[in-house]
Amino acid sequence: MTANAFVERLNTQIGNEFGASQQYIAIAVHYDAETLPRLAAFFYAQALEERNHAMMMVQYLLDAGVDVTIPGVEAPHTRFSDIVEPVALALAQERRVSDQIGELAGVARAEGDYLSEQFVLWFLKEQVEEVATMSDLLRVVERSRENPMFAEEYLAREHPGEEDADPTAPPVAGGGV
């Protein structure tokens, strides 16, 4: 049976994931407005990924037969001074989410909820990748501050399109549509 403390924290994390998704949409819109299509596309894809993370959590709670709460989220930051600020914000957000997911794993373990702990392990692995990707992108945009096209070229070269779906990923509520 899923521990109540874990359910409460996972419902909160659903809101965190939706908030991250909205923040990434705001970043993508900023880059779109600046005619930086690769940066925009990268963050639109990140927004969808965060939305899907929330929906994976929703599906887990549905499968566990417990109440799902979809919390409201704070408005995202929408004004940025240069091309670096949005990526720095994204990296800080990914580090915060990593801490939140680590806390979720700790709650599951402390409650002896091994099924929930196992569920959260995929997200821990995912966060290592997310932090590394944003750290790399931050270094690139810092070097490209005066010529954003260098960041565009980097994304075209290093992130040319959609990656294959991870077959170990939890299912997404609604089938990911």
How does the SSE layout of this entry go?
Blueprint: H1 4-33, H2 37-64, H3 84-110, H4 114-143, H5 149-158
* CATH architecture annotation name: Up-down Bundle
Count of separate structural domains: 1
Profile the largest sheet. none
Count of helices?
5
Give the integer mean of the pLDDT values: 94
Going by CATH, what is the homologous superfamily?
Ferritin, core subunit, four-helix bundle
Sequence of secondary-structure elements: HHHHH
Question: What key phrases describe this protein's structure?
Answer:
Ferritin, mainly alpha
Write up this protein:
The chain is an all-alpha fold and 177 residues long. The chain has one domain (4-176): Ferritin, CATH 1.20.1260.10. The chain contains 5 helices and no strands. The longest helix has 30 residues, at 4-33. The model has no long low-confidence stretch (mean pLDDT 94).
Structure, briefly:
This protein has 5 helices and no strands. The chain is an all-alpha fold and 177 residues long. The longest helix has 30 residues, at 4-33.
